[in-house]
Write the structure tokens for this entry.
Amino acid sequence: MNKRLEEVWSEIVRMNPGESEFHQATKEVLGSLGPVLEKNPEFARLKMLQRMAEPERQIIFRVPWQDDRGEVHINRGYRVEFNSALGPYKGGLRFHPSVTLGVIKFLGFEQIFKNALTGLPIGGGKGGSNFDPKGKSDDEIMRFCQSFITELYRHLGEHTDVPAGDIGVGGREIGYLFGQYKRITNRWEAGTFTGKGLDWGGALVRTEATGYGAVFFIQEMLHAAGEVVEGKTCLVSGSGNVAVFAIEKLEQLGAKTVACSDSDNVLHDPDGIDLELLKELKVDGRERLSAYVERRPTAKLLPAGSIWSIPCDLALPCATQNELNEQDARTLVKNGCIAVSEGANMPSTAEAVAVFQEAGVLFGPGKAANAGGVATSALEMQQNASRDSWSFEYTEKRLSDIMAGIHDTCLETAEEFGSPRDYVLGANIAGFRRVARAMTAYGLV
Ligand code: NDP
């Protein structure tokens, strides 16, 4: 990072004390932008970086709710409406005890550039709560969601801000959130949420889209390097929405996934994960991975955090931020890993990314590789707006074309700036440039 960018970043750190994930995400993006500021000095003069690092609006609110025994709980809700230069704020809601303002801001900041890369008309936002859905009854989840949206609803709308799911927020939660939104506003405004059920305005492929998209991205990177997915051995961390459907697409393309994880354990199944069993436990049920091993004795459980020590060709971190560190990256490289596609947001630390890039491992950063989810959300909005619904095959083709387009944009931008195959640089510059051009056109906003 050059001295001027260092100064911009120091100011961001000073303005946002204690928000370590946000500092990490902004540093990662600024680290790529030196060449584009040299080429387009007007972006520096207009203080684009400083403006993009400051959310347009941050909403923080109290979420009181009652558990099944009648005890009162208070959680904190967030929605950071980061940037609407390209369209309505768009990004998921995360319910997890680790959620803080800094986590939501890192996710929202990433979302601006990710959404820009899709080429679709969506701005960047993110929200959530430090509420822990684990172990809660359906009724408790419903009461929490109703309380959460009773405050947030006034800030949402299909042309204003459109939430979706993320960690801890799936179809069940979107149902409760949308149901209460509809009740309060007296509007059946399906385009205000994405990730809805198929009977009430949802779109085919949205559930699968992030995981499938991360695999389409690694497929594109491999093709560009004269390689294929077929026959490869893979590791996919996590066992939630993104991980399960990444494993499914890898299997469809002829690769074998030998391990996945949750926050308690790593599941190692050297014969290849039994996808049907995994989906029965994790998509249809809300089981832990330990239940898989009880049903399939050839598999074993390893300690949490050990997934990256299993030899593989392809690695897809699909759980959470900073789950893959420098040492993990060194182990993956030593064991012959040739490509990494980030299904999760910022799962690799900056040091880990440097190890991959130095070793020539193809590295697809989250803001490019996991953009399939939000892209398909934008397709859901498109279907809602036209009161239409598309077939699975058509929507999946749209998704794979969008992922190929993002891949090519990153590759071409990296080449334009003299760093061939640097997908990090390509993604950051291409995303930034699209938003910066729009903001330039709007004047000082
Ligand atoms: P889910 O809640 O469906 O699954 C999350 C998975 O990650 C679970 O297996 C969970 O294990 C594990 N996990 C979560 N937090 C931790 C932690 N602190 N340590 C270890 N494991 C953890 O979420 P998603 O699959 O939707 O999201 C996964 C990642 O993908 C996130 O980074 C999210 O931001 C990103 N993403 C999601 C998109 C989407 O469309 N859903 C779109 C783009 C990115 P456990 O059950 O034990 O908590």
Q: What stands out?
A: The pocket of NDP is lined by residues 98, 165-168, 210, 238-243, 262-264, 318-320, 343-345, 370, 373 (CB under 6 Å). Residues 149 and 177 are 6 Å apart (CA to CA). The mean pLDDT is 97. The chain has two domains: 3-200, 209-364.
